[in-house]
Specification:
By secondary structure, the chain is an alpha+beta fold. It is about 35% helix and about 30% strand. It is built from 5 helices and 7 strands; from the N terminus they run βαααβββαβαββ.
Length: about 160
C-alpha cells in the first residue's frame, strides 16, 4: 500500500512536542556525528529565528521525514539534513523534501546547493541526488572519525 503524506510542511515555529518528534526521528545523530545533539538544537533554533529552513513529512500524523537547510554567507545553500525513516522510504517523500529545498534555493538566488552524506549511504542517496542534477565532487575521508567518510554533492 502506498502511503500518501498528510503534507510536506514548512516549519518556522517548533513546539516542544514537535521538537521531541524531530529528536526521536534523528536519534542516530549523536552516535554518528560528534556533537550531533548540540548541532541539532542549534539548527532548530536557526529555523525558529528564520536563519534556516525546515520541512517535515507526516504520514497518518506521524513524523517520517525532515529536511533542514541553511544559506551560507557565500550565498550557497547547504542542505544539512535530508532524512526519511526507513519504513517510509521509496514513496517519493525524499524527492518532495529535496524539491522544496531546491525551490527555496532558486527563490533565494543561491548560486549553488550542496549536501554531504556518509559514504555508507551512497547507494540510497546518490540516485535521488543525481536525478536532481547533483554531482558527487569529493570524498572527505575520516571527516567524523576513522573510517567515517563523507561524500560531497553539488548542484550548480
Amino acid at each position: 500500500m502506498i502511503r500518501v503524506p498528510d503534507s510536506v510542511q514548512p516549519v518556522s515555529e517548533i513546539d516542544q512536542a514537535t521538537r521531541q518528534e524531530i529528536v526521536d526521528l534523528l536519534y542516530f545523530l549523536p552516535v554518528l556525528y560528534p556533537g550531533g545533539a548540540e548541532w541539532l538544537t542549534k539548527r532548530l533554533i536557526d529555523v525558529e529565528r528564520g536563519r534556516a529552513w525546515a520541512d517535515l513529512v507526516r504520514v497518518n500524523g506521524e513524523l517520517v521525514g525532515i529536511s533542514i537547510a541553511l544559506k551560507k554567507p557565500s550565498g550557497r545553500l547547504k542542505i544539512s539534513t535530508l532524512f526519511i525513516a526507513p519504513e517510509a522510504r521509496s514513496h517519493g517523500y525524499g524527492s518532495a523534501l529535496l524539491d522544496r529545498m531546491l525551490k527555496r534555493a532558486a527563490e533565494s538566488g543561491a548560486p549553488e546547493v550542496y549536501i554531504t552524506g556518509a559514504s555508507t549511504v551512497r547507494a540510497q542517496l546518490e540516485p535521488l541526488l543525481s536525478s536532481r542534477d547533483f554531482e558527487r565532487v569529493a570524498l572527505e575521508q575520516g571527516r567524523y572519525g576513522p573510517g567515517r567518510d563523507e561524500d560531497i554533492y553539488v548542484r550548480r
